[in-house]
Amino acid sequence: MKFSIKLVLSTMIVLALALGFSGFYFVNNVFETSLDREVGQALDESSILSFAFETAALNVPLKYSVLPDSVVEEIASRLEMGGRSGGRLLRIADEEKNVLYTSSGFTADEGLLPQTDQHNKAYRVIRAQDNYYVHTCVSINALNRILYLETMKDVTEVFTERALGFSLYRKVTVVILLIGTVIMLVIASLLTKPIRLLTKATRQMAAGDYAYRAKQISRDELGQLTGDFNRMANALEENICKLEEEIEAREEFMGAFAHELKTPLTAIIGYADMLRSHKLDEEKSILSANYIYTEGKRLEAMSFRLLDIIVAKQGEAKLRETPVGELFSYLQEMFAEKKEADIRFAHEEAVVRMEANLIKTVMVNLIDNACKASETDAGTDGAGSGMAGVIEVTGQRVDGGYLLAVRDYGIGIPEAEQSKIVKAFYMVDKSRARSKNGAGLGLALCAEILRIHHSELRIESKVGEGSCFSFLLP
After folding, report:
1. Helices 193-206 & 156-191, crossing angle to 10 degrees?
2. DSSP 375
3. Rounded distance, CA 408 to CA 131, Å?
4. Is 389 helix (H, G, I), strand (E, B) or coil?
5. N or C: which terminus of the chain has fewer CB atoms within 10 Å of its end residue's CB?
6. Regarding the domain delimited by 3-176, which CATH topology (the fold level of the hierarchy) does it fall under?
7. What is the per-residue pLDDT for 86?
8. pLDDT at 383
């Protein structure tokens, strides 16, 4: 059963119970008020009749010392005929509570007489055939006699009004419930619309449409829930996109890794088979062994680089305060014998929190790549100025940390390739990189080292004008 139907049913049940109890209380309260009024009138009329009887008894001739039964009947008959409708329903009993006079139509039993004495009145509401009456009984003291006067007052109209009241209230209740049901269906539909939109959104996302969002149509709790759901969906979509990117990157990595393994292994196996199956002269044997050695060293370097990347991804660097001057002294000594490029160092003194050996690895990789990009066989003359072959290694204080940069004026990197070069095994010019024993792992290793330093590699490059690789140490 839908939630909106449950909401309507529960509301209608509560409304029906409320209307039922309130209607019963209202109609019954009106009925009891009317009945009490009629009982009061019946008792007042009984008192008036008893007073009239006693007055009539006082007018009896003095020849009677005790009121005779015949006179009682005569007085009762006159009282009966004195009613507004031409007759009253009354009954008179003597001291022994034996009936002396009864009006025609007086059908009440004698159950009220035993409850009445000289000091109190008694009454009850009875039903005779299809009518209701207030039955009263009161004592009369007339000429040394104690008599009992009973009356019956018709109150059928009060009970009829109660029945009509209940009937009318039931009809009104049914009409109210029908109208209330229609109104509640509309209200429930409006209240549950955000839930339906959320349900649709969950089904769309379950079907694979992660970009689908639920429309927020209110600012209440359900509107807030819709907003939270959309924020959750955004986070979920981002995580799924990241997972897909990671899966894609892993597949690319595996494909590139297999390709990078295949090339040197093919050369090693081919030359090894040639040495094994053919008798070669000394020159060819040395050449074959040299190919095997060169490709083996390339595989060894690639495996070490992969191991460094894995360690960098899983490890946490122990950062220590290190003077930048020590880093630049190491780099100057490292590349002092590099005659193929003009490497210029300049830095501002500072103490930076870093893992010195890892940052040295980053800088060595960046400078080594800059040297390769600046070589004259790269097919460019740099920026067309005297900067060809120049590499600038700088360090300076900036807002938020210390900026290290390596700039070259070599071949440059196409803009479309710049976001990809930090991926493992990715090379812009694969043939040229392999000729330099490169495998496309250096920048991937730099990116992982900078990640554990809470930094990232920034790349600025234009084809034919050179490149600048920089990173900020917080």
Report:
1. 40
2. S
3. 118
4. coil
5. N
6. Beta-Lactamase (3.30.450)
7. 52
8. 46
Q: Counting every residue, how long is the chain? A: 474
What is the reported pTM?
0.49
Residue ranges of alpha helices (H) inside 59-108 are 69-81
Low-confidence ranges of the chain (pLDDT < 70): 61-65, 83-87, 249, 252-261, 263, 298, 301-302, 304-317, 339, 376-386, 424-441
Domain limits, the chain: 3-176, 209-257, 317-473
Which among 31, 22, 82 has a CA at the least distance from the CA of 52?
82
What pLDDT is recorded for position 313?
62
How far is the C-alpha of 112 from the C-alpha of 125, rounded, in Å? 11
* 426 φ/ψ sector (left φ>0, alpha ψ -120 to 50, else beta): beta
pLDDT mean across residues, the chain: 83
What fold does the segment set 317-473 form as a domain? Heat Shock Protein 90 (3.30.565)
Q: From residue 369, how far is each of 374, 411, 437 by CA, in Å?
A: 9, 11, 12
Q: How far apart are CA 370 and CA 315, in angstroms?
A: 28
- Residue 50 to residue 94: CA distance in whole angstroms: 14
Q: What is the C-alpha to C-alpha distance for residues 77 and 329, in angstroms, rounded to an integer?
A: 142
Please, which residues bridge with residue 392 across strands? 344, 407
